[in-house]
Amino acid sequence: MTRRLTATCASVCVSLVLAACANAPMPADPAATPAAQARAPVPTPPPEPANRAPSGPDRSRDYVVGAGDVLRINVYQNADLSLETRVNESGVISYPLLGQVVVGGRSVGEVEAAIADGLKKGNFIKQPQVSVLVTQVRGNQASVLGMAGRPGRYPIEVKGMRLSELLALAGGVASGGSEIVTLSGIREGRPFRQRVDVSQLFGGNTAAEDPIVLNGDTLYIDKLPTVYIYGEVQRPGPIALTPDMTLMQALASGGGLTQRGTERGMKVHRRNAKGQVEIVELRMTDTLRPGDVIYVRESLF
């Protein structure tokens, strides 16, 4: 009897323990707590593709095609219509299915639209996607002559190229070149000529005009004008004449007077409007002119 009672009590105790364990709350997942979530690494977004097109307008699409230019034309998913061709002297190219296509005088974007429109209207391609790339620029060029870092002919690769951009392509003004440059060409069927002060152009002067360069223009950079000094100076010879150079500045450029030189009685030989040489006396603050010849006399005492 006692043994049976003991077994019954043990069975009841085991049942109570199992019920308590079933009703107890489960331990929280450490990874699900706010602190764990805060410590969890934030996934980094995938990197952007490296070949994404830069923002802003593409000036190359505004380039006006000219005779001699080489165009590379691509039609998406139509390799047989993709080719590279040169524009003839009449501004025309020969294109498959379309024949003669006038491209001279049109921008790159207009050429793309013209070819796409021809393929669509001819029922050759329903939705043609045409891209045109100018691989060689021969139809729009400007020349840089004179005292430039790299004189020569340069392509006008974008519409609206400025004089400053052309000058930069040519390496700027070389040593001994004048800061006054001359741009010449044809505007509206008439000869065009404009002098531009480069020092004002790059000196932050917003009033200085930076003209647009067109096909066939010529940019000429002259030598710096010179004056000559001889007599009782340390370094006689030619001196580059800067704008508004005075007689005193010219003497300083020549190294100043020798021990026997004097400022009195200095003579300046100058050509007048008739081309005749005159002897004039200038004050130390007077400005010189191109071609002036300064003579410094010897002191008598």
TrEMBL record:
Gene3D superfamilies: Outer membrane lipoprotein wza domain like (3.10.560.10), wza like domain (3.30.1950.10). Residues 29-61 are annotated as: Disordered. The keyword Signal applies. Residues 29-41 have a biased composition (Low complexity). It comes from the Bacteria. Keywords: Signal. PROSITE patterns: PROKAR_LIPOPROTEIN. Residues 144-178, 227-278 form the Soluble ligand binding domain. InterPro entries: Poly_export, Poly_export_N, Polysacc_export_EpsE, Soluble_ligand-bd. The keyword Signal applies. Residues 1-19 form the signal peptide. It holds the Pfam family Poly_export. Residues 60-134 form the Polysaccharide export protein N-terminal domain. NCBIfam families: EpsE (TIGR03028). PANTHER family: POLYSACCHARIDE EXPORT PROTEIN GFCE-RELATED (PTHR33619). This is Polysaccharide export protein EpsE. It comes from Piscinibacter gummiphilus. The gene is epsE.
